[in-house]
Amino acid sequence: MTYRTAALCAILLLGACSPSNEGKTPPPELFKQERDALEKAKAVDAAQQEQAEKQRKEIEQQTQ
């Protein structure tokens, strides 16, 4: 009988935790400003690396 009770409790708990499709609300935009700042920083980093590579090539051409 304890197995039946435990199984019933487990089924009820799993059923209570299932997501509801009733009021579909969009997920909150957490840390949007931080993500935007990170994307901008990545773009700046890529531009800096490209500029450094260009400068390195120019230096190599001048030394030859």
Description of the structure:
By secondary structure, this protein is mainly alpha-helical. It has a domain of 34 residues. Helices cover 73% and strands 0% of the residues. It is built from two helices and no strands. The radius of gyration is 29 Å and the shape is elongated. The termini are far apart. The mean pLDDT is 83.
Q: What's the layout of helices and strands?
A:
Layout: H1 2-16, H2 32-63
What is the distance, rounded to the nearest whole angstrom, between the alpha carbons of the first and last residues?
Answer: 89 Å
The overall average pLDDT, rounded, is: 83
Unreliable stretches (pLDDT < 50, length at least 5) are none
Helices and strands: which structural class? mainly alpha
Summarize the structure.
By secondary structure, the protein is mostly helical.
What distinguishing features does this structure have?
0% strand; 64 residues; mainly alpha; 73% helix; single chain; elongated; 2 helices
